[in-house]
Design brief:
The chain has about 400 residues and is of the alpha+beta class. Helices cover about 40% and strands about 25% of the residues.
């Protein structure tokens, strides 16, 4: 894993000021051994801290040491590694050419050329922090001295050197020895007097008052963000429930519409089938046409050739004939059964069945006068009565 990392060390008292006001320093800038980093610095935000081991062969390799030659010096670390694009806004000095090993440390000279950075050093800002890239292999183990580590660092490439308030590698890497007046010694290491211990996610972190305030602010912001996230999760859950309910209701509505549609289609199919079944075949159609033609022929003989049958049903035509033939019978008030029976009565050959004489035709030929000895009204009444008595046998008259 390739990372951009910063270390912190303190400057020695090997300092002097040039006639131009620049500050020349000879300082330790890096060391071997184990240093602790935040998990976020190592690309592992899931871890609180990571103990990183830097072996001697990596720290003091020719490539690693020479990578710090003629590199920019900054007042605190910039947000990103220094490049030509950011040089003007970040650089306050420059490292020299003579990089050497000093025990467990890397030492090199550098010069501060910015007055504000020089003033900061004069006011007690004396520790150093190296900014570099490296490879980190997460692999647990222990050093030759028995110290346990979580990861191993290799392929160190220097980018810049920063003057900071407090360095990671300890106060052995600092500018001058004036820092001692502002610090106390704890377990062999010098620590600032105004450090506070802050608990962050169950971990104890030592920091300044300003750092503690910043941590408290960040923790409060994280708490607020968590509350907002929980509220938003609740809103999302409510919206999801409403969406599911609306979707279920719409599905039910669609099912009802589909059922109604299917029912309507089935009813229409049945209607079409019924219509098809009611359509007579060719033979039946011929019989109907022949019967219709005969009925119209009879009607025109009774009512005259000018009689218009168009638009009149068979029953209407029978009524027209009977109305003409039986004006006193109140034909308009009679039902269809009476009409059929009366009309049939006019065509009966009760007088001479063997001679096959058509009474209606005989009547019509005589000017609609009843044949001798034949009472049409009585005959119609008798035919109607006979029809009612025999209708159950299926002897209904043709309409």
């Amino acid at each position: 894993m390739l990372l951009s990392v910063t270390d912190r060390l303190s400057l020695t008292d090997a300092t002097r000021t040039t006639r131009d006001g620049y500050l020349l320093v000879d300082a330790r800038i890096a060391r071997t051994g184990i240093q602790e980093y935040l998990g976020s610095e190592m690309g592992r935000p899931d871890l609180g801290t990571v103990r990183v081991y830097r072996p001697e062969n990596e720290v003091f390799s020719q490539d690693a040491m020479s990578s710090f030659i003629r590199k920019p010096v900054t007042n605190d670390h910039p947000r990103e590694m220094v490049t030509a694009a950011t040089w003007k806004d970040t650089v306050v000095g420059m490292t020299g050419d003579e990089v050497v090993r000093d025990g467990d440390y890397v030492r090199l000279p550098f010069m501060l050329t910015d007055q504000s950075a020089i003033d900061a050093v004069s006011n007690g800002k004396r520790e150093l922090s190296a900014g570099y890239t490296c490879d980190v292999q997460f692999s647990s183990g222990s050093t030759p001295d028995g110290e346990v580590y979580d990861a191993v660092m290799s392929h160190i490439v220097g980018n810049h050197l920063a003057v900071v308030d407090r360095g990671r590698a300890g106060h052995a890497c600092r500018i001058g020895d004036a820092w001692t007046a502002h610090s106390t010694t704890t377990k062999g290491r010098t620590m600032p007097d105004n450090l506070r211990t802050v608990i962050v996610d169950g971990l104890s972190v030592q920091t300044t008052d300003q750092g503690a305030q910043a941590i408290d602010k960040l923790l409060a912001q994280i708490g607020d963000a968590s509350k907002k996230l929980s509220a938003r999760d609740g809103e999302i859950a409510a919206l999801t429930d409403r969406h599911s309910t609306a979707l279920s209701a719409k599905d039910a509505e669609i099912a009802q519409l589909r059922s109604a549609h299917d029912g309507a289609i089935a009813a229409k199919d049945q209607e079409i089938a019924d219509l098809k079944a009611s359509v007579p075949d060719a033979a039946a159609m011929d019989a109907l046409i022949e019967a219709r033609s005969g009925l119209i022929s009879v009607a025109r003989k009774a009512l005259g050739d000018s009689y218009v049958s168009a638009g009149r049903s068979n029953m209407d035509i029978r009524r027209d004939v009977l109305t003409k033939r039986l004006p006193a019978a109140d034909v308009a008030a009679k039902d269809e059964a009476w009409i059929n029976a009366a009309f049939e009565a006019l065509t009966l050959d009760n007088a001479s069945a063997s001679a096959n004489v058509d009474p209606l035709r005989q009547t019509l030929s005589g000017g609609l006068n009843a044949p001798s000895g034949m009472n049409v009204g009585d005959t119609a009444h008798n035919a109607y009565t006979d029809h009612l008595q025999n209708a159950w046998k299926g002897a209904e008259g043709t309409r």
